[in-house]
Amino acid sequence: MAVETDVLDELRRLRTRVPALTGSLSATVDGLVLAHDVPGTEPEGLAALTAAALGVAHRMADDAARGEFRELLVRGTRGYVATYAAGPTAVLTLLADDRVNVGRLHLEGRRSGARIADLVAAHIGPGGGRHAGRTPPEHPAPAPADPARPIGTLPVRTPQRPAHQPRPQPGG
After folding, report:
1. Hey, how many other C-beta atoms are within 10 angstroms of the C-beta on 5?
2. pLDDT tens-digit readout, 31-60
3. Using a CB cutoff of 8 Å and minimum separation of 24, what contacts does 150-155 make?
C-alpha cells in the first residue's frame, strides 16, 4: 500500500473519533499534500499555508527557547485550525467547528500525528524527502538577553525632537 492510502485511512479514522472535525490534511513540511479529507477547501492551498505557518511556528519556538515545534492552534470566529508535527518530514492540519472539545482535538491530533509519522517513516524512511541529504544548518549561540528588559517586552523607541520648531498658528 502507498503511504497516501495509509495516511488517508488514518485521517478518516480521526474524523470518526472527533465528531466536530470538519476536515483534515497531511502534508510534507514543504507544503506537498500527502493525503486530505477537506471538503470545500483547496488542499494544495491549505498545505502551502500550513508550510508557511509551520515556518513561523518553528522560528517562534526557537527564538523563544521553547524547544522543537509540536503544535499550533488558531481560533477563528467559526472554529479552529490545529497543526501538529508528524515526525520530521510531515505535518497534520485539522479543521474543526467552534463547538469542538479542544482537549479531545489535541489528544486525537497528537495521536494521529504520531501514527502518520510512523507511516511516513515506514514508507519513505526516517529523514526521507526533498531535504534528506542536506546537513542541518549550524545555529549560532543566541545573544545574551538584556537583563534590564523584562521577558516579553519590546524595546521602546524614544521619539526624536523635530529639526525645526513648528510655527505658531494664528488664533491659538
Report:
1. 11
2. 999 999 999 999 999 999 999 999 999 999
3. none
* Residue pair 95/79 in contact by the 8 Å Cβ criterion: yes
* Three cell numbers written together for 157: 523607541
Which residue reads 549550524 in cell numbers? 138
Q: pTM for this one? A: 0.71
Task: State the helix-helix crossing angle for 102-124 and 3-17, rounded to 10 degrees.
Answer: 170
Cell representation of residue 163: 529639526
3 state SS for 71-127? EEEEEECCEEEEEEECCCCEEEEEEEECCCCHHHHHHHHHHHHHHHHHHHHHHHCCC
CA distance 42 to 123: 26
- Which letter, b or e, does each residue of 9-36 get, where b requires 16 or more Cβ atoms within 10 Å of its Cβ? ebbeebbeebebbbbbbbbbbebebbbb
First to last CA, the chain: 82
Q: Give me the pLDDT at residue 129, please.
A: 47
Phi and psi angles of residue 117, each rounded to the nearest 5 degrees, phi first: -60, -45
Per residue in 117-154, pLDDT tens? 999 998 876 554 444 444 444 555 555 555 665 555 55
Cell numbers for 120, please give them.
511516513
The residue count for the chain: 172
